[in-house]
Amino acid sequence: MVDLLGFEISDAIIQLIEAMLIAFLVTFMILYIYVGAAVMAIAKRTQTPQAWLAFIPIANVYLMAKTADLSGWYTTSLALAAIPFIGPYITTATLVFIWWRIAERLGRPGYWSVLMLIPMVNMVLLGIMAWGKELPATPETMPEIK
């Protein structure tokens, strides 16, 4: 028995908590590598330079903005999440916009970006955009000539 803040906790409960923590960390690492590899594949598919940024936090949002053919300044939307009440909504809306542009560049429907808000559906759509069959280019999916 371990005494923690006046409560006695059995060794079995401590082992259960440790096992859950390990399972969480392993799951997190698997998802992190999957998302990084998918974003990197999408960047390569759209011929966006520096696709390796997909594995670096915050830099991956910069890469997504560049993949969407937007300014890198869209990355600053992450800082807006610190604004009380409305900040997270602004950040979410910006990320939905970025994914909308990415989906359209890949010849997929833009509304997939809204579906990216649904857990597990986002992983499936991300995989389809990264490794799915390439669709023929249409005038809407062609990048603008600058």
Fraction of helical residues:
40-55%
β-sheet strand percentage: under 5%
Radius of gyration: 20 Å
Largest sheet: 2 strands, antiparallel
> What is the topology, as strand order, of the major beta sheet?
1-2
* C-alpha termini separation: 69 Å
Overall number of domains: 1
On the 0 to 100 scale, the average pLDDT is 89
- The secondary-structure element order is EEHHHHH
Can you tell me the overall shape? elongated
The low-confidence parts are: none
Structural class, by secondary structure, is mainly alpha
Write the layout of secondary structure elements.
Layout: E1 2-4, E2 7-9, H1 11-45, H2 59-67, H3 87-105, H4 112-115, H5 121-131
Helix pairs in contact: 1-2, 1-5, 2-3
List the defining traits of the structure above:
5 helices, single chain, two-stranded antiparallel sheet, 53% helix, 146 residues, mainly alpha
Description of the structure:
The protein has helices at 11-45, 59-67, 87-105, 112-115, 121-131; strands at residues 2-4, 7-9. With 146 residues, it is mainly alpha-helical. The protein has one domain. A two-stranded antiparallel sheet has the order 1-2. Helix 1 packs parallel to helix 2 (59-67), helix 1 (11-45) runs parallel beside helix 5 and helix 2 (59-67) crosses helix 3. The longest helix has 35 residues, at 11-45. It is elongated and about 70 Å long. The termini are far apart.
